[in-house]
Amino acid sequence: MKKPKIVIVGAGYGGLMTTVRLQKLVGVNEADIVLINKNDYHYETTWLHEASAGTLHHDRVRYDIRDVIDRSKVDFVQDTVVEIKKEEKKVILEKGEVEYDYLVIALGGEPETFGIKGLKEYAFGITNVNSSRQLREHIEYQFATYNMEEEKNDNRLVIVVGGAGFTGIEFLGELTNRIPELCHEYDVDSHKVKILCVEAAPTVLPGFDPELVNYAVSQLERKGVEFLIGTAIKECTPNGIIVAKGEEEPREIKAETVVWAAGVRGNSIIEKSGFEAMRGRVKVQPDLRVPGFDDVFIIGDSSLVINEEINRPYPPTAQIAMQQGEVVARNIAALVRGKQDLETFTFDNKGTVCSLGHDDAIGVVFGKKVTGAKASFMKKVVDNRSLYMIGGAGLVLKKGKFNVF
Amino acid sequence: MKKPKIVIVGAGYGGLMTTVRLQKLVGVNEADIVLINKNDYHYETTWLHEASAGTLHHDRVRYDIRDVIDRSKVDFVQDTVVEIKKEEKKVILEKGEVEYDYLVIALGGEPETFGIKGLKEYAFGITNVNSSRQLREHIEYQFATYNMEEEKNDNRLVIVVGGAGFTGIEFLGELTNRIPELCHEYDVDSHKVKILCVEAAPTVLPGFDPELVNYAVSQLERKGVEFLIGTAIKECTPNGIIVAKGEEEPREIKAETVVWAAGVRGNSIIEKSGFEAMRGRVKVQPDLRVPGFDDVFIIGDSSLVINEEINRPYPPTAQIAMQQGEVVARNIAALVRGKQDLETFTFDNKGTVCSLGHDDAIGVVFGKKVTGAKASFMKKVVDNRSLYMIGGAGLVLKKGKFNVF
To answer: Residue A199's closest CA among A172, A156, A164, A235?
Structure first.
C-alpha cells in the first residue's frame, strides 16, 4: 500500500506549527511529509516592525527552518508556489511540481492596497524580511544624506505611516524610540523630524478597548507622532501622499518615506488556483477544510473563520494561525489512520498585546487590561511563547527576547 | 598691554595638534587661544575607509573636540570659515568674524575631481563623516533593495572605486571584508557582486615599493577585486561610468555605486582668500609661515612642503600634519614671547602602512618592509598613536583599536 503524502505549503506560524506537530503525531511508515517554502528561513511576522524601524537586526527576526523540523521525517523543499491544481491534486512550483494526498495551504497574507494609486510603486511595506530591511535602510539613507545636501530637503525627515492598526501602531512605537538614536548618529536636529500617522477609520486601533487606545495615542503623541484620523490616503506619489478628510479638499503631504501598514488580504495564489474567496480568504469548514475539497486545508491569513459572538471574521493573527496548525495536524493524523470524524476548530483567544516600543505596550491578557512595563513584559512572553511552541526551549534561548527590564 | 590672540581654524590632525600643544606651552596670561571648527567633533580622516565600508561604525571614527582641549585655556567656536581677510587680520565666519594676531590655517583638503564630468553629482566620497556614512548606507540600501525587485537590477551589486591610491586601496580592503557579511545579511549570491578599481596611472599605489604593491594587488584580487589600470574615468553618470584605456574607444561600465577616491587638493578657502597656491596648496616657508604674511601659518593638506631628496612635494598625510602642528605650536609660543628666531620644519618619516582590511596590510616602517598580520598590527599602533598624541591614554582607551589578532 502506498504511503499518503502530506504537503504543507508555507512555513509561517501556521505551516510550521502544522509541520512540527505532524512530525510528532505521524510515524515515518504512516505518511510522507513535505514542507515547501520560498525561503530557507521562517520569519516572525509579528516582529517585523522592529526590523523595519531598526531597533532589532533583521537577522534576529528569522531562523533556519531546518533547525526546527525533524529532517528524518520531513522533506524540506525550498521553492515558490505558482499555482495549486486542486483537481489534479498537485502543487505547481517555479522549479517543478509536487503531488499530494493531503494539502495544507498556509501561504500567508499579502498587503491590501485597496487600489490606491501609487502605493505599490512608492510606499514601503512591513510585509517580510526583504521589505523590512529595505525600509530600515531607506530611512537610514535619508538621515545619512540630509547632512550632505547643500540645500536641505526637509522631506527626508518626514515619515508617513498609512494605517493606525496593529502593525502601524507597533511600528510607530519602535520608530519613535529609534529617531533619537538616528538624530544622534547622523547629527540631525530632532525638531526637524516629523512623523505622521494617517488613518481612514474614525479611530486608532479599531476594535481595541477605548481606554487602551487613548493610552497608546497619548504615549505616541508625547513621542512626537501626529495623528490624522478619519483621513484617507488618495494617492501615493514619489514625493509623498495626497490625503483628504471627509469632504475636504485633497491636500499634499510631502515625505520621502511612506509606509503602508494598513490592510492584509489572503494570498493571491488562492484566487489564481480557483478557490472561492473574499479578498483572498477562503471561508473554511469547522474542520478547516475547504468546502468541496476534503483533502485541502487552509489556515492562517488565507483562511476565514467567523467569530460567532460578533458574527464577524477573526482578524488574521499569529495566535489563530498556530492554533489552526495544531488542529490541522491532528485532523490529518486522523485521516491518515482512516478516521473520518475530524476535530472542530474553535479559537481560544488568550489575549492581544500591542507594543509601543520595547519598553511600553497595551493589551488585554486573559481578559484583563494592561499597559506600560507590565504589558511590555507580557508582549515578550507572547513572543517567546511562539518560539517555544515551534522550536522548544533551544529556540527561545537562541532567538528569544530577554531585555525585559 | 593687550594679550595676543592666536586663532586656529580647523580641528583636523594639524589644527588639533597645534591646539593641544599650545595650551601646554602658552600660559593664560600670555595669549588667548581660539579654535574654530565646523563640527563639534574631530574625525579620523585615515579611518574613514572603515566607516565607508561599514566595518567600523561612523561614531567610532570621531570624538568630541571638547574632550581633548583644555577649556580653561582654549575658547572653542563651532562655526564655518567663509574667508580669511589677511590684510585686515580677521577670519570671516558664517555667524560672525574673529580677529587674530596669529593665525594657523589647518582647514584640511578637498577632493580633486580634475573637472571630470558628473563626478561631483553622482560619485560618493570618502571625505568626511557625512560622506562616509552616506556611502555606507547607500551600499546597504542597494543590497536591501536587490531582493525586493521582481526584475533584478544586477548593477546594484556593482561597486566601482575610482583611484588605486591610498584611500582607494584601504577602502577596497575593508569593502572586500564587508561584502560576504552583506551577502549573508541580505541573502545575496556573492557571485553576483562585482568590485572594480579604475586607476588612470600605470600602477596601483604609485610611489610604493613594487613588491608591496604586488602583494596588495594579489590579496585584493583574491578577494574579488578587478583592477583596470592605466584606465581613465571620462565621465560619471547616474548609471555608472565611461572609461577609456589609452587610445581605445570609451566604454560604459554600469554601476549603482561609484566611489571617487582619487585626488586631494587644498582647501578652497585658500584661493578664495587670495593666497598664492597650486591646487589650493601654499608653498610655505621653512618655519611654516606664508611668504609675505608673518602672522599666518598654514599646515596640513593646504600646505606644500618640498621633499628635497626627490624635489617633489610630500603627499598630504596625517603624519606630516601632526608634525607640522607641533612645530607651529613652538613657533607661535616663541613669537608670543618676542623671539624672532623660529624653528625650521623637517619631516621625519616614520613610515607608511596601507591597510588591506582589519587583518592585512602592507607598509614600510622605520625603513623595513612589512606585510600581513605584522603590518596590520603596525597600522593599529599608528592609529592609536595619533589618538595618544592628541588626547593621551584616555582617548586611546576610549577610541583605540585593540582587535589586534
So the answer is: A164
Note whether B232 and B187 are within 8 A (CB).
no
Catalytic residue among A44, A110, A170, A256: A170
CA of B276 vs chain A CAs: smallest distance (Å): 28
Grade residue B1 by pLDDT with cuts at 50, 70 and 90: low
Say whether pLDDT at A1 is over 70.
no
The one catalytic residue in B170, B174, B256, B326 is B170
Choose the weakest-confidence range: A237-241, A400-404, B33-37: A400-404
- Sign for the pseudo-dihedral over CA of B206, B210, B212, B218: positive
Q: Are strands B124-125 and B257-260 parallel, antiparallel or unpaired?
A: parallel
Q: Which of B140, B131, B122 is nearest to B167 (CA)?
A: B131
Mean pLDDT of chain B: 95
Q: Which of A213, A209, A220, A219 is nearest to A365 (CA)?
A: A209
pLDDT at residue B207, as a whole number:
85
Complex confidence, ipTM: 0.85
> Residue A32, CB half-sphere, CA atoms under 13 Å: how many?
12
Nearest residue, CB atoms, A131 vs list B138, B148, B185 = B148
Picking from A80, A139, A148 by the largest number of B CB atoms within 10 A of its own CB, the best residue to mutate is A148
Between chains, do B134 and A141 touch, taking CB under 8 Å as contact?
Answer: yes
Residues 6 or more apart whose CB falls under 8 angstroms from that of B335 comprise: B102, B342
Active site includes B170?
A: yes
Residue B143 to chain A, least CA–CA distance (Å): 8
Cell of B180: 560576504
Residue B178's nearest CA partner among B353, B59, B49, B27 is B49
- Residue B141 has its nearest CB partner, among A59, A141, A186, at A141
Residue B27 neighbours by CB distance under 10 Å: 11
Of the partner residues B131, B140, B148, the one whose CB lies closest to the CB of residue A148: B131
Contact residues on chain B for A138, CB-CB shorter than 8 A:
141, 144
User: Which residue of B59, B131, B148 is in closest CB contact with A134?
Assistant: B148
Per-residue model confidence (pLDDT) at position A120: 93
Q: Which residues of B touch A134 (CB under 8 A)?
A: 141, 144-145, 148
Inter-chain touch A148–B136, beta carbons under 8 Å: no
Taking only the tens place, the pLDDT of each residue in A164-181 is 999 999 999 999 999 999
* Residues on B contacting A at a C-beta cutoff of 8 Å: 39, 58-59, 130-131, 133-134, 136-138, 140-141, 144-145, 147-148, 185-187
Query: pLDDT-based confidence at A116, cuts 50/70/90?
Result: very high
Q: pLDDT tens digit string along B126-146? A: 999 999 999 999 999 999 999
The tens digit of pLDDT for each residue in A182-210 reads 999 999 999 999 999 999 999 999 889 99
Residue B30 burial by CB count (10 A; 0-12/13-18/19+): exposed, middle or buried?
middle
Residue range A244-269: mean pLDDT, rounded:
95
Q: β-pairing, A306-307 with B225-229? A: unpaired
Percentages of chain A per state (helix, strand, coil), in multiples of 5: 35, 30, 35
The full set of domains in chain B, from first to last, is 5-38+79-111+265-349 (3.50.50.100), 113-261+350-405 (3.50.50.100)
Q: What pLDDT band is residue B177 in, cutting at 50, 70 and 90?
A: very high
Taking alpha carbons only, the member of B61, B6, B10 closest to residue B33 is B6
Residue pair B32/B342 in contact (Cβ under 8 Å)? The answer is no
Answer whether residue B57 shows pLDDT above 80.
yes
Q: Determine the pLDDT at residue B371.
A: 95
Cell numbers found for residue A113: 492596497
B180-239: pLDDT as tens digits: 999 999 999 999 999 999 999 999 998 899 999 999 999 999 999 999 999 999 999 999
